[in-house]
Amino acid sequence: MTLDVRIQQSVVANLSSRPAPVRTGPFVIGVDPSVDSPGINYATPLPGLEISRADVTALVAAFRSYARKPRLEYVVSTAPGLERLLLDAGFTVEERHEYLVCTPGTIEQLPAPGGYTLREPITDADRAAMIAAQNAAFGGDPISTDADIARIAALQARGGIAVMALAPDGTCAGGGQAVPPNDGVSEVAGIAVTKHHRRRGIAGAMTAEITRRLFVAGAEIAWLEASGEDSWRVYERVGYRPTGRRLYIALD
């Protein structure tokens, strides 16, 4: 089994763990009734299955029936003809990314900067603080909803990892998480540091700690995507290496 296929299967498993996943033909849609965000409610193809125009039409209809924006994320090589079918159906490419992979043999531990501590959010108050910091770091409102808090708690209960960074004054400076491993593979995501605390090494330390915890729990492969050159350099210092390509594509 190729690494691309293993990564794609981990995406399928992640979406299948949503509160109300939908299987339609060769696709799975990760539906979460509590939120309509396209970044959560998206689809991905099952690797190795034939995909037709009729399958794409049915996929769009399924999205519409749940009042969700038709959107997909997937490893390109595992569905080589899919992009053409989606473009013909009116989809537009949002982004193309390389994904990076880390293994127990490549990970480097990066300590938290002086005065900062890294730990798991244990209470709902912890989770709320972490989510608010992540939202602020990504340019949103520094708030967290009950649904957000429940989502992180459920992720942890299923074997996922969450880590928050606490500043010297006790406030949350950022956070990140990893989904529960599937067949030894887990995605690390949501690594974010609020503006005032950036460029101190916190993002690298959080990424390293989340990845370390995954490997201690038995994961074999951790993977993630970098949003720009700065984050790319951070992840490479932790031991992540570029490996394959992913596509984000949606129908407006």
TrEMBL record:
Instruction: Tell me the ranges covered by the N-acetyltransferase domain, including all copies.
Output: 116-252
Top-level taxon of the source organism: Bacteria
Classification via SUPFAM superfamilies:
Acyl-CoA N-acyltransferases (Nat)
Q: Which PROSITE patterns match?
A: GNAT (PS51186)
Instruction: Output one GO MF annotation.
Output: acyltransferase activity, transferring groups other than amino-acyl groups
Name of the featured protein: FR47-like protein
Give the species this sequence originates from.
Answer: Paractinoplanes atraurantiacus
